[in-house]
Amino acid sequence: DLRCRLTVGWRAASLLPAEQRQQADTALAGVRDEATRSGLVELRLEAVLALAERAHASGPPATARTLAAALLLEARASGFALLEARAAALAAPR
Known about the structure:
By secondary structure, the chain is mainly alpha-helical. It is built from five helices and no strands. The N and C termini lie far apart (about 40 Å). About 85% of the residues lie in helices and about 0% in strands.
């Protein structure tokens, strides 16, 4: 089913090494987009969080903070407290 396929896609992309960042980002963006079209809010937020975490680990800090700040607001509004907390940690200036 779609939820399972997207969950596996998100988790698999999240585990790719830094050398495969572009491939991971493309896969995560695909999960995000498909989850958005399908109304699967939690999976979309998880994909955005994974993109923010990857940007935090190996990309420009401003990109990670921007993604995380938007995610924080949406996770809070949607009632996903754990995602909100994880996004808040990424959104905080270092």
